[in-house]
Amino acid sequence: MAAAAPLPDYTASLAAFLLGDYLAQLGDPRLTEEERFERRTKLEYELWKLEDLAPMSAYRMVGVISQTFAGDLDAKLFPAIEWYFDFLSAKNQQWLNEVNLVQLLTIRRALPTRRLRDRALQTLLLIEAAIHPDHPEESQIARLFREDELITGDRELTPQGAEIVELLLREAVTSPPFTPNVPSIRRYSMRVLRFCLSPVDIPDRAFAESVLGLAGDIGDSLYNELSALLIV
Amino acid sequence: VSLSDLEANIAQWLTTGVSDSLLKSSLGKDADQYKLYVIKYTAAKFLSDILTSGSLFAANAPGYTWGDAVYVAPIAYPRSTMMYGQAGVVGSLDTIGKTFYNAVDPAGIAYYQEWIRHFPALYTQLTTTVHSNHANRELRNKFRSRFAIDCVFFRPDESCSSYVYPAADLWLAVTEWGVARQVAYGRSFAVKDLKWCAIATEAFEPDSLGYRAILHPTLSAKRTFSKSSYTNLERDLRTAYLATTDQVVITEF
Which residue numbers of B have CB closer than 8 Å to A's CBs? Predict the structure, then answer.
């Protein structure tokens, strides 16, 4: 029997092709858009090749890549962060289990524009829906809601709170309906919203309905489906 | 039109399996009657990995026509995407139970355009900000996720005279599904049984909203072409050079 091949040293491999440099170049203003696109393509091709060396252990790359975004974030890294969100969004559960969700929340708090914050929340939502679909109470998004006090004592959403609610509703509306054995972003996002609105009790119906109104004219059928997921 | 009414119309627009005559000409025969043969032109540097892994890459950069997908052409349009790479890889798409979206017909495009208006934040980003590429990508991905579309077929949106016929050719965006049935990108096994079947002799360069073919038909006209082998190249070049007509040798391996 042959000995098992040693696992690749992802820290060394990713450093060898200058992961940090590539990521920094994704937002380097001295490069043209075409040059940044070329860097991105090269980065993804190198990661693809590295994954191919040992497909069963390649998920360990996540930890190494995420280290690039530890600590204070330089604005030049925002395009790389966006790439990182894309990268994670295409991975399976084995990879997603390796993601540090608290770090994603920290990154989200540091992002200056709504578009980027939405991307961070979308990524967080997808990962949570994939790794613990039946435990919305553990959601970092609900935690963010609590810690940052995004609902006032008068049951009004703060602007930050409304931003998150709108994102959760949009994800629920634009995601496919529930399918057995497939993580459902629709179901998960509505259940997270439920814990955002009321961490302990079932949300007050009138308040929940006013929040659902932010989804716009979605028709009775979808409204009823989302309502049922929210007020449970 | 409310979102639910619109979505009901879109659901009616979807088809399961290949029922459109535009696609039927690329189906296999007999036991392979449900296989749709497709071709992907790629840079030669990616060929080895594609053949070794048996997978293509679902593109993810903002700006792709229908969002993140494996972009291929039905084999009935063998020259239509040649400007994207030198090596032509042929594979098959299993069409049984797959959901197709017809974006050739103006109605298919109109449904999409109407649907995105129901998402004002993204629509505003699309129409009034510098981030339109990102909004475009997200909306197209969401649309395909929402309706579980495995394949969008559409007319080419990049021109290349003598190679692309925008009113007649067909391109496909084949979805790679993620863990929550969301549109994903990266390595994709959606197109199966990949074989390297073509090598292009043409050269292209970007031109306006598409590409320009450099050799054919401008330079190729009034010349004859003949194949030569790796070992007989010198002999065949001498023959071509000394001929009284313009002859070009196509160098094989």
Answer: 2-5, 7, 46, 49, 52-53, 57-58, 60-61, 68, 118-122, 125, 131, 134, 142-143, 145-148, 176, 178-182, 184-187
